[in-house]
Amino acid sequence: MQLFYLCHNPYQTHADLFLVRVVLVLVDVNIRLGNIQLTKQSSAILISLYVTIVVVLFGLLNASFVLITFKNANTRKSGCGVYLLCSSILTYFTMFFFLFKFLIVLLSQIGTITDYLFLKIQCYAIDFLLRCSLTIGQWLTAFVAIERVPMS
Q1: Distance between CA 94 and CA 77 in Å, rounded?
Q2: Are 3 and 123 in contact (CB under 8 A)?
Q3: Sign of the dihedral through C-alpha 102, 108, 109, 110
Q4: 113: which of 80, 95, 149, 152 is 20 to 30 A away, CA to CA?
Q5: Which strand (E) or helix (H) includes residue 48?
Q6: CA geometry: angle at 53 spanning 51 and 55, to 5°?
Q7: Three-state SS at 112
């Protein structure tokens, strides 16, 4: 069973499907080989694992620095500081959702997770949470931009 067909949603845009395909193509290389240890996986799977770890670490590091910066009360005097503080907290959630999603995809492709019901539920739940956190982050960024516009 390929996870792409399990997670296929007819309401997704072509860009969303492209991103899902990119991740799954990197992980899907060894789908027919079954239970293979992570260290003996193909280079495409290992590269996607390393890239995911680097992206998550840089995302968490960035969110930590922003959180430290906007934790100070002086930086939150305007609405922008509050929005950016909320955005940094939201970045933590987004990074954890992304990492969790990738690990589930990886483990299901390796053969560790085989429960169809779990895979179907997580497919919709994690994708929904990831999409919501990304959308809320974009709204917070838009709020910062709107507040920064000078009133003339």
Answers
A1: 26
A2: yes
A3: positive
A4: 95
A5: helix 43-70
A6: 65
A7: coil
Helix, strand or coil for residue 111?
coil
pLDDT at residue 45 greater than cutoff 80: no
Cα four-point dihedral sign 6, 8, 9, 15: positive
Rounded-to-integer distance, Cα 88 and Cα 30, Å: 36
Rounded to whole angstroms, the Cα distance separating 38 from 102 reads 14
Tokens 């899902």 map to which residue? 20
pTM of the entire structure?
Answer: 0.70
All structural domains of the chain with their residue ranges: 42-147
Cβ-based neighbours of 25, under 8 Å, separated by 6 or more: 44
- The mean pLDDT of 95-116, rounded to a whole number, is 83
- Give me the pLDDT at residue 139, please: 94
Residue type, 24: L
Question: In whole angstroms, what is the distance from residue 130 CA to residue 135 CA?
Answer: 9
Average pLDDT over residues 121-137: 89
- Residue where the block lists tokens 């969790």: 100
Q: Angle 29-35-39 (CA atoms, 0-180°, nearest 5)? A: 70
